[in-house]
Design a protein that fits this description.
This protein has 89 residues and is mostly helical. The chain is built from two helices and no strands. The chain has a domain of 34 residues. The N and C termini lie far apart (83 Å).
C-alpha cells in the first residue's frame, strides 16, 4: 500500500490545517479518494479537525482574558473615589 506523504506532514498552524482539510473534503466531494487511501485520509481529516478545534478554543480563551483585562475595575467597597473626582471645577 502506498503511503500518503501529506498525511504524515506536521501541522504548522491553523490556516495550513484548514486548507489541507478543505483539500481532503474537496477530494471526497469529487469522489477522488481511492479505497487504499480512504482510511488514512479520514484519519488525517480527524487529526486536522482536532487540531483546529483545540486552536480555536485556545484563541477563544486568550481573547476572553484580554477583553477581561480591559474592563474597568471597580474600587473596593468602603474606599473613597479617585482623587480626580474630589477636585472641584
Amino acid at each position: 500500500m502506498r503511503r500518503d506523504p501529506v498525511a504524515e506532514e506536521k501541522i504548522k498552524g491553523f490556516e495550513q490545517a484548514k486548507q489541507e482539510l478543505e483539500r481532503i473534503l474537496s477530494d471526497f466531494d469529487r469522489e477522488q479518494v481511492n479505497l487504499d487511501t480512504l482510511v488514512p485520509r479520514l484519519k488525517r481529516a480527524k487529526e486536522l479537525i482536532d487540531f483546529c478545534t483545540k486552536r480555536i478554543k485556545q484563541i477563544e480563551t486568550e481573547a476572553k482574558e484580554i477583553v477581561k483585562s480591559l474592563e474597568p475595575r471597580e474600587a473596593p467597597r468602603g474606599e473613597a473615589a479617585s482623587k480626580d473626582e474630589d477636585v472641584p471645577f
